[in-house]
Amino acid sequence: MADERKLATILFADLAGSTALADEQDPERTRARLERFYDAMAAEIRVAGGTVEKFAGDAVMAAFGAPEALEDHAERALHTAFAMQRRLEAGLALRIGVNTGEVVVGGARENSSFVSGDAVNVAARLERAAASGEVLAGERTAAAARGAFEFGAPRTVEAKGKPGGVACRPVLRALSLMRPRGTGRVFVGRDGELERLWRAYRRSVDRAAAVLVTVVGDAGVGKTRVMRELWQQLATQEPEPLRRTGRCLPYGDGITFWPLAEALKEHLAILESDPPEEVRRRLGNREILGLTLGLDVAGDLHPLAARDRLHAAWVDFVMEQASQRPVVLLIEDVHWAEPPLLELLERLARDVRAPLLLLATARPDFARSWDARVDAETILLEPLSGDVATSLVEELADQLPPDVRDVIVRRAEGNPFFVEELIQLANEDGVAIPDSVQAVLAARIDLLGEAEKAALQAAAVIGRAFWTGPVYELVGEHWPDLATLESRDFIRRRHTSSLEGEVEYVFKHALTREVAYNGLTKARRARLHADFAGWLEGVGGEHAALLAYHYAEAVRPEDVDVAWPDGGDELELLEAKAVTWLSRAAEAAMSRYELQDAVALLDRAIPLTDDKARLWRRIARAHALNYDGDALMHAFERALELTEDERQRSETYAELAFESGLRSGMWRRRPPEHVVDEWTSRALAHVRRERVPRR
Ligand SMILES: Nc1ncnc2c1ncn2[C@@H]1O[C@H](COP(=O)(O)OP(=O)(O)OP(=O)(O)O)[C@@H](O)[C@H]1O
Ligand SMILES: [Mg+2]
């Protein structure tokens, strides 16, 4: 696996006072106890989707969100921390540190970890600072899991290399599985979708039959929210329909029928704390439904027979309910559903002959097509339109200045979850991607197969719009199927192409592109930029600006040490190309009178070449065209400082004199005449000297 950058949460746990334990006991017994401890801890970590990174002594390190990204990495790590505490044998206690940050994931060498980064060191530091039995979380973890846990007062822990120490909070208790979203105060748009849901409900009532509606849309686009609105509308109906909800979980043991179990428990008022006998009593003569709840009620039945009975019992049960009043059953997040649940839902939709509206929400990763005999429809929830999104931002963030609100509308591109998260961040930084958004998008990207993910990353390097030819070229040995990226709604095909003979696609969402790009190591980004630029140069045509951008990105001075650690001819060649294309693109920009662009392009080229003086002179010319005397003067001064070459110097003076004469209006204060004379004579001095030997 190639190295990747990830946003992850790292957990360190260490047995407090375990040396005492070792002292007192027979070494064989200590070892057995430690083995049991390791096994139990590893089991808790794995069931929550974490990866055990290593055991060292009595300490355990685990990563959540690496190697595979997880949208709720922080919540999972904290839930695991508590689960680990609960699993301990009597007499043992753990100190736990949890911290979130960017890490690099790579193939582990012997004795080293597969994740690395400052976040890992800080997690270890927090573990050492935690009291026995305590869980300490870094600030970024606490922010990511805000609302899902209760935290104690902030604290600062000293750490090497951190002058201000590390801010953290003790974690007191869990409140919910995942961080709750939004305030739900405002609701905008979605009239058409609500109307369609409403009609589906009416159809199920009028026909006294099951209707299945699947609402499909991106993470955060508002599926759950639209359902909540529908819920409220349904509450006003006469007779009031019975409404039940359940949610598929992304991880856990024995969760196949979880959503139906939730609905059933709510319906029968079964509590988490009820003993199995009580649950059986409430199920009455429908004991087989207990399979849904994880009860062992199948006895000696063949598994297939048990399944058939379970299906029949559910159909029966729902029919009975629905013949009293309409039933609306919502199953959330079926993209996480396991096949047995989907089969059961399909069975309900097919066989219930009474008013049942069966609703499912799913992200575009959900690839099931329902049985053709089912009255099923799919509603695609598209992003909010520009106006509607603007009004949402206005409602939620009227305290923010209009230009910041505009940036939020633009960056969120109609996704209300992104809107909410960007508003949270708005006071800090206009361009960063909120951790929450990053995590959701990265997790979806990591669900892709290796080839498709590589293609998405290569495309991300090319840009928001990209062409298939170079993508195939860049991913090398992979054979990606772009149709998958399309069907999961990451990318959309354009009807026309800006590059002749090439099929053009765009990222549906710019933030997806950014997150895919951010997942690449700097070294990989540089390589892909260079490869794409090479490809583009090969196809010919007029692409100076694109070539300039990609060559320059390939050799960013601030990253060149990690991107091209061996330096050498290849780097030199790329730098030379970057300078060439930046200069050409600047020329083109100047001819269009895009003078600031021209200056920016030339600025980028300066650190990449030894011939800086020449570039400064061109920058000066751009400033002259822009009638900016001060900037021009500064640029000429730099040009003069940077060259010893007499000829270049005299040419520079000549230009200076010429420009100042030609555009006298550009000076805030005109240079005095004797200074201009001085420039002229310096320009001429060289010319005279040059002519002397020829006489
Ligand atoms: N039409 C809307 N008006 C105002 N706020 C909205 C609207 N739609 C969604 N939101 C808000 O945006 C956030 C994300 O919406 P929601 O949770 O419904 O997304 P989702 O599609 O269910 O995402 P996921 O796939 O992650 O479950 C929520 O806080 C929600 O209240
Ligand atoms: Mg949802």
Can you walk through the features of this model?
With 695 residues, this protein is α/β, with parallel strands linked by helices. The protein folds into five domains: 4-174, Nucleotide cyclase, GGDEF domain (Alpha-Beta Plaits); 191-380, Rossmann fold, CATH 3.40.50.300; 386-432, no CATH class; 433-512, Arc Repressor Mutant, subunit A; 610-695, Alpha Horseshoe (Serine Threonine Protein Phosphatase 5, Tetratricopeptide repeat). It has 28 helices and 17 strands. The strands form three sheets. Strands 1, 2, 3, 4, 5, 6, 7, 8 and 9 form a nine-stranded mixed beta sheet that branches. Strands 11-12-13-10-14 form a five-stranded parallel beta sheet, with helices on both faces. A three-stranded antiparallel beta sheet has the order 15-17-16. Strand 2 (51-56) and strand 3 (59-64) form a beta hairpin. It is globular. The site of magnesium ion has 4 residues, from helix 7.
Cα radius of gyration in angstroms: 32 Å
Identify low-pLDDT runs: none
State the distance separating the first and last CA atoms.
71 Å
How many domain regions? 5
Cofactors and ligands: adenosine-5'-triphosphate, magnesium ion
Q: Beta-strand level of the residues, as a percent range?
A: 15-25%
Helix content estimate: 40-55%
- The CATH homologous superfamily of the largest domain is termed P-loop containing nucleotide triphosphate hydrolases
Class inferred from helices and paired strands: alpha/beta
CATH architecture of the largest domain: 3-Layer(aba) Sandwich
- Main CATH class of the largest domain: Alpha Beta
CATH topology of the largest domain: Rossmann fold
Shape: globular
Q: How many helical stretches? A: 28
**How many beta strands in the DSSP annotation?**
17
Overall pLDDT level: 90
Largest sheet, strands/sense/barrel = 9 strands, mixed
